Amino acid sequence: VSHELPPDAIVVRFAPMTTERLTERAQRDAVGGRPRLSVFCRVQAEGQTVDELLERLWAEAPVTGKNVWLSTTRRIQEAGLELVHTPEPDCHYDVDLGTGSLADAVASFQAAFDPPRRNPAWRS
Amino acid sequence: MAVVTFSRATRVRIDLNVRARHGLVRAGFEDANGPLSVGDEVVVFEPEDGIEGLARVQELDETERFVYLDVDWSTFIEEPSEEQADGGNFSYIANSSETFALKEVYGTTSSTRSGSFARHLLWPQVHYALFAPSSDPSWTILPRDALTVVYSYFEIAPVVPIVTAYVDYGASEEGPQRDTSALVRST
């Protein structure tokens, strides 16, 4: 993992998350022929709730969205995928989907995340 | 009196997560539904979340067919539901160099919240007239009977406390068409 993220760092993904859009986006954002998908990563500070982390991310990235999907660096790695640090912003990473089956990699990417939750930082 | 006309803004579908240099959001030319020029204000949207906001085109990469957008994340709102779409218009209204975000409140005078935003449904050839409190001498109120269809909007931005926009559908016979891509600009 680039940029030395600990295994329990929180990986955050906003929409889109459907197979069709992920596949399309990964191909469009490929680097060197390797499809990539964007995420945000942050280490949870001691005593910091996930909601607080998301609030911080909203301001830092910045980013917003109604729904948010959460994972960890460990789960991304266990899915056979690689996180690549791609500032700016500092909290931004790409998930390298490799050179194998894109459909399998996208499915692994989706499976590495919890079901969506309402983004507490969403303001409309 | 400030009479404004609208120009249609290109809508660009984005992935909320994608970032490029300087934090700009990268999208493909194929994600845009209209022309793109550096400096243009566009509406960006994410259809799965059903949200949209404003952005400015910072750079065009004609080789890779990428557009780089400076997204104003504070402008994001939910796209109007079909029910709302049937009810009227949401507008981005620009006066001078500043864009004000308006939100339709269906004829009441209560504002919603600080930093509220805008959307847009238009018929072709819509004309807008902008109004403001009579205490502001730079604005004048038009007679309502000059307008065929009237909606009220309330401006939330701090510069002008309340702006009400009345919408004149003019002679259009095509009926309402959903169009969330329009920006209204002062003339």
Tell me the number of strands of chain A: 6
Q: Give the terminus-to-terminus CA distance of chain B.
A: 11 Å
Approximate helicity band of chain A: 25-40%
* Oligomeric organization of the protein chains: heterodimer
> Distance between the terminal alpha carbons of chain A, to the nearest Å?
35 Å
Count of helices of chain B?
Answer: 1
Mean pLDDT of chain A, rounded to whole units? 93
Order of helices and strands of chain B: EEEEEEHEEEEEE
Give me the strand/helix succession of chain A. EHEHEHEEHE
Sheet bearing the most strands of chain A, described?
6 strands, antiparallel
Uncertain parts of chain A = none
Structural class of the secondary structure composition of chain A?
alpha+beta
Mean pLDDT of chain B: 54
Structural class per helix/strand content of chain B?
mainly beta
Number of helices of chain A: 4
Q: Could you characterize the architecture of this molecule?
A:
The complex is a heterodimer of chains A (124) and B (187). With 124 residues, chain A is of the alpha+beta class. Chain A has 4 helices and 6 strands; from the N terminus they run E-H-E-H-E-H-E-E-H-E. The radius of gyration of chain A is 14 Å and the shape is globular. The N and C termini of chain A lie far apart (35 Å). Chain B is 3% helix and 39% strand. In chain B, strand 5 and strand 6 form a beta hairpin. Classes of the chains: A alpha+beta (124), B mainly beta (187). Chains A and B meet through helix 1 and strand 2 of A and strand 6 of B.
